[in-house]
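Q: Joint fold for the lines below.
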Amino acid sequence: MSGSDMRPGSTSKRVSSLRDLPREIAPPRDLWKGIEAEIAAPVQTVVKAPSHRLRYLAAAAMVAALAVGIWIGRELSVPLYTAHATVLPANNTPVDEPGAFHAAYVMGPKYINQRAQLVRDLATRLAQLPPESRTKVMSSLQAIDDSKRNLERELGKDPSNALLQELLVNTYQDEMRVLTAVHEAGSSGEGI
Amino acid sequence: MKEAGRQESPVDWEGALIQRARSGDTRAFERLYREHAGRVYGLCLRMTRDAALAEDCTQEAFINAWRALDRFEDRASMATWMHRIAVNVVLGKRRKAAPLMVDWDSLAPTGEDERIESEWTLETPLEVNDIEAAIGGLPDGARDVLVLYAIYGYSHSETAEMLGVAEGTCKAQLHRARGLLRDRLGVEVG
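A: Joint structure:
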């Protein structure tokens, strides 16, 4: 250690024991800025892999969408809405489970009105369908409803989860496709 | 003389600062830095004999401490913990710079135990600068032990643990340091 490095206050003070040497030596410059720059650096965000639960929900939503897509042939053109929607379940009762995500996500009033109209006509239209088609529709709507409830419940726990939001919107869109297909189907169940 | 543990006071301000720092409060950690920087830098400077390197070691020690705050035991002394981290940083840099330079085990225990409660008194009072220069001229191994034991007051076992050497080696180095200091300072070191 050079002499100039080791002169706390460049003192010529005399001591009679090594124990009396100063324990503290002030750094010649403030080192805090360098430390702060290092510890305040943003931690690299680690994108978490979807949890098993989320993967299950995604798979369930996909299965529901696939089933709906198959039976309506995806040839139907439904005026779906681009942005986020809030949609009531097919039975028109809002999901009201504790912790559920009450989607005030909303599409425009046009969507809500259109859906409400389709839901009102659903019972009448279903009654006109052959039993086999009716069973298909009811089964698909049930799958969609289950999927929506699960997604809304998970979104209640993690409202900012973009994947869940997207899955939920897709599920709403699938529901609209089913309702529209039922509405436009003939009494023979054609198109279903 | 021992390094003091955490000061017991009605308000454990340091414990509170540590808690806040653990939760990510850099202002709290800055206060801890301000409190301990002088002791950490002093130790690093005495061990490295290089002001710029001592600054680097001090910074690195505090950065390491920030990252390891969760592992800090609440009843431990922050001062001692910081010194342990600083010693590790200095030894790490020294190994990188000259991996074969420090050969701790080359100095076998002499069997002549250092007096545990030695006060390291000088036969005649001397100027601080002269003493520091003499300490700075000691070989690394002897100097490290002398600094931790004689200046900062750690016990043999604590000093040995910090430096990663056997306690016998630590005592032997201290014995060697005492002899070298006596020769360089020209006074008896009791």
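Q: Anything notable?
A: The two ends of chain B are 15 Å apart (CA to CA). Residues 1-5, 102-108 of chain B have pLDDT under 50 and may be disordered.
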